[in-house]
Amino acid sequence: MLQYTAICNTPLFDSTIKFESGTGWPSFTQPIKENAIKYKKDTAFGMVRVEVMCNTCDGHLGHVFPDGPEPSGLRYCINSESMKIETASADL
Question: What is the pLDDT of residues 33-80, one digit of tens each?
Fold first, then answer.
């Protein structure tokens, strides 16, 4: 099943790469394709993080951290309110 942005319906993540990170937030190891996500340095709240946004509509999705499982070693920590789930047979 694919995960789409709630704003513009762009497919961003595949549920097969979702994993339980223990954070309470949906977590993925990578986006569905390299150019689907835009990255921005986020220095809010006295910390340095990398914000992830939809490359189509600039919608905020969450953050990416370097503490995920292999093969990427990344954890895309995504706000579930920014996404919607549809089956893989939907508009590709």
Answer: 989 999 999 999 999 999 999 999 999 999 999 999 988 899 999 998
Is there a catalytic annotation at residue 77?
yes
d(CA 42, CA 70): 24
- Decide: 90 and 2 in contact? Cβ < 8 Å: yes
Return the CATH number of 2-86, one of 3.40.50.2300, 3.40.50.300, 2.170.150.20, 3.40.630.30.
2.170.150.20
User: CA-CA distance, 35 to 45, in Å (whole number)?
Assistant: 28
- The residue annotated as part of the active site, out of 8, 54, 57, 77, is 77
pTM to 2 decimal places: 0.85
